[in-house]
């Protein structure tokens, strides 16, 4: 670790939370250089839906490398990119009757959100964007303005403008009525509010504390957006690509977003990729090259991402996700009951993103440390870091899942 | 191409400029699916300093994949990351007596600049940043505010604030005197200027038109920054990593920047990576996790990037770069003379970034198209796209270089 | 009128609403150059609490002029200013046990609000200010940002920043619960809200539509401000100085504001004057000369304003105000019942500011025009101008009041 | 003075500089309550061009009061306002062939500037405005953004946006070439500058240090504005109305501004009035009531202001102004030579605004105090307050002028 302490920036975080040097990884396991193996309930911040070093992807990537495929192409056309697009269209869009355009940009979620903001502002000619309390949308100046967390916001060093903050459904003052009130004020010429360019929302706020929005509320947000002439943007970066038990977290909710932001899991192997789905009538507002990014044509990400999509050709994986998610939720509920009685522990989640809100950041921090000591990687999120967030690979073997849940149980008890 | 036209966003750019589907690539060649081979004077926007699919990197990456190295780690410590850091320190920092800290972030140049801006504002408690005309620093809201190009700026849809614009050395009103005037106005309490947090500068403005700053001017910028309590930030994203004939473009200029932003070439294979070098006294202002990014721990980029660093263990490659750069400049000067007489063609550049300013964007566009038709990939940059920018891989074989220069010559003549 | 049409700016407004040339005025009457006399329910936008050309003030002003008193002094000390200050202290502050400092500035309400904003931001080191829907606080850039009316806001031509908008008590979503929700979100580090520098509120929104806040809600705003470290600022510009039946509109409500903004009526004769009352501990943050204004030392305004204060030495006038206010409200309620049945007319007000909300701006406009034709000056306010606002001089004779109310009754019937 | 110390805000300034209580005033004299008479070289910050309590104005005002003229009318038409407009048109506009519209607003210079900014942004659809170093344009948020003085700017507590700062002609880097450089950068699509809505300039910067612009430079500013589609706005607030020896300070310079901002002297007696002159084609962009202000219809100001205009019916006063101005300049030059040798004293000015730059704020402060002690009111301006600014009433008797200049001479010698 000395190398990191000596040469890496003080900003490093996870290497403090998990103070060891990892040497290899496989599915839901990371192994450090001393050979210690950890169950991984963190999955690279939700990126590794199909596990570390997924063997099908690995084979495809090696073959691609050996064949001198175009590894880096900006937005030139390549055979590999075409394969990815065709697979995405066939697997995801066509079955849903979606006709959205695929936009590639710098391969980070933040960049996807920045592009969505630009487009929404272009399409509407408006400036302000509605974001919700507890939302997390990225760390660059545009996306950071949407992000709720004060710690991140304070680092900007400049005012974060052009955002109107509404409470998320589950926050104080949140819900359908709050949307109706906002609508009424917006309709009043003396309300003092400007009509927004977009509403940007996560269906499940992952960093924000595993806050789960209901379908009716999301539909109300969409309807409000439509009625006031704003774009309805779903930030699907952390909970898309199967995490919640369906490919999109909003599948089956009667939603029809204008823009869907994808990143993290879409590149499959942890290989960077970001992609927005954009309704064609909005996409037509883009001029060629108006939002660029050097790494928007990643051959390895297209290869791995294409392979990842094969997991969604049928419902096998997603059925498992729902089952494992239920197992996780049950375990957490039991834990909340046995350990959290009188402490107000709460369990929230959908599919394989489940959170245990222990009500207090220092307790959560102790549990994370104790879990690590016992061989489990798990992270905290939410206000003050008080929610333990479980986002293991969707492909985690049952044994690893059980082991991880047991370690967590012990760590919680140990930390009380 | 139909797949792209049907499904990819209207924003796609290079697939219009180079309207074919590429299937493979090797060093300074890209080959399309019809088997047509192109000399590549574009190199993935300056990323592929060591060529497409560099065989040493390729071998290392395949070995890493086969060994289940940690492909995606955020900022956890990994053996692979440690290897990269150690190599960078040994090859780049130690020989220069530099003690800067390495900060990793979302793997785009834009993200590196956003992080530098946050830090400069934190360190100084100031808000405004000096950027120069014709600069290009990225497309997210913070870095876009620094970028000079109106086409990109207009897409923001919101005011781009907190930036003071000064003319670059080679722009109207630019030079040492302009810096002195700015200094004097800043010193005057009625000057109406706020003291800046940072000066962010490229030593060679690549996108801005291959505008080359002199060492004395850069030293004057640095001195001004020091004297007014601002950070001196070099955006080395496009011209670092050997492009100009030295590892850093500012080597040997008597400069000592506070922050150096690296991306593009640092990841070696086109694999995304961004990294800031930060003086320790500034780095100490970061709190853990204050600026994050999901893809800030890319195993493949560390492996390829480490391999790339081996090319800078001795002066062999850089000697070649200087020689080839001179060959490119000679060829362009000859071309400017024979074709550009009375047209005011200008040649500018350092090392293997060379520009031919043909004075007019539509002429440059015609040359790009004609070059493509004749088997050469070259791009345009500068105001209105009037500068042909030559940034081939540093490893381009002599024959390919000669062939590319000859194609360009023909294309220019054809386009007049 | 041709002179005005030919030479005065297109921006002129009231000369279109009341298309005649006025030649003289006295108490609650204006007389045009053709000798036509109008009952004045508008009173110079609420400035002329003690009537046009109040004879006591007039005598004092003429004496002052004849004695060569200092008419214009910036913030030099003058005997006249001292007389005003002493009178204000003795009549207003001492009886209430208030120890606030008197700050003079450019003689407009907008300037008073701008000064209050600067001070609140200085004292707290914060940037954002809470303003309420339907609020009106002025037309300069800082105060305009607080103002709710979209017509006025749109004229800014730049984003109006640094303001958080909450619904006024009587607006959709307004009330005590909305304050509690805002408080909760503010307390949550992921709420995405910055702590505010101030809450700026009118007790009765005059321009906003004669919206009357309750004492409990105002106390909740004050308590919230205190608890979150913000200043509690009452904009008393239109409804202070006796308008509501007490000197301050907030008298007797258990409120203890940090800053009170006064203008309009404080200068007495329509002579410009603005003044903030500031708690000494906040006032101590001002540096000498930090917010200036050329016309902040108006001798005539001090003389007339001092004379105006004599009306508040006892309760005679205010008792009358309450009685006349009740008469106005009764008349409006009767009118609302007879004319507004099934039309949802609403009557709102306190003391001698009373509004008849006819639900529709074009109807209100017709009533204003018809009233003018019949010899009554009355204005419209509120969203879309749908509220007839009655703000006659507090000194209006009973006959004039009765006549005005009767004209209004007829005008409403005529306009239906 | 105790009343002021006890009850008036800490922000008070001039009552500290001139620590006495004034009781009366006449032409160029102020007399304190102890009967001490002071020569006034300050004239209410340049407001009282025609002296304190000008007898012709006083008579007119008393007559107006006695006749119950409409003292306060917002923008209703009144006979008094018509008289003022007709007089202004006949005396000022017609002889110059000007056809500008007269816009009235809140009666402060700051308000006039705010209105000009709104209009320029409306007309052009642009956001940024060019202001010059050392400019002073007011204290409300919009005008303050134009003002150069850091002390005033810092009090805003929020970023001052939407302004581009260029050096004034006489500042470091200022002059015709700087305008040409700015023009070139603006014309370059990668210059990073947005086209401005307006250029706002003073012909003589009064608060900024009595900096005098040349006619050629002002014409270059105007030409630049025209060429880039921006409005050319002259802020004539402090040096208009005869101060420089012509009615407008820009008379005879070949200038044809789009907007002229007037305040201070236009109201004559120190009675507040502000007025913009606006070219009709721009004025047509205003909607009725888009920028309002309660005190925009001041009967007393119209009466006094009309009387003031009679002084400009012939050249008698202005001839005197030029002569007295020359006398002032001579005296200052002599003083600079005798006292300022080797100290770099500088004399600057036009007509009856003359400045003695003593190079150092604390010296200037001492001179101001010493002058006061000896019976002269004079103020300091410029960066750090290092310039003694002489702006006596244009009607100052020769004896008073001579006495004041002699006191100043003694005070300077005493203070060295």
TrEMBL record, chains A, B, C, D:
Spell out where the chain crosses the membrane.
none
PROSITE patterns in the record: AA_TRANSFER_CLASS_3
Q: Give the source's domain of life in one word.
A: Bacteria
What does the record give as EC number?
2.6.1.76
Task: Give yes or no: UniProt keyword Transferase.
Answer: yes
Q: Which cofactor does it need?
A: pyridoxal 5'-phosphate
Keyword list, A-Z: Aminotransferase, Pyridoxal phosphate, Transferase
**GO MF, one annotated term:** transaminase activity
Q: In which pathway does this enzyme or protein participate?
A: Amine and polyamine biosynthesis; ectoine biosynthesis; L-ectoine from L-aspartate 4-semialdehyde: step 1/3
Q: Which InterPro entries match?
A: Aminotrans_3, Aminotrans_3_PPA_site, Dat, PyrdxlP-dep_Trfase, PyrdxlP-dep_Trfase_major, PyrdxlP-dep_Trfase_small
Record family assignment: Belongs to the class-III pyridoxal-phosphate-dependent aminotransferase family.
Q: Which NCBIfam families match?
A: dat, PRK09264.1
Q: What is this protein called?
A: Diaminobutyrate--2-oxoglutarate transaminase
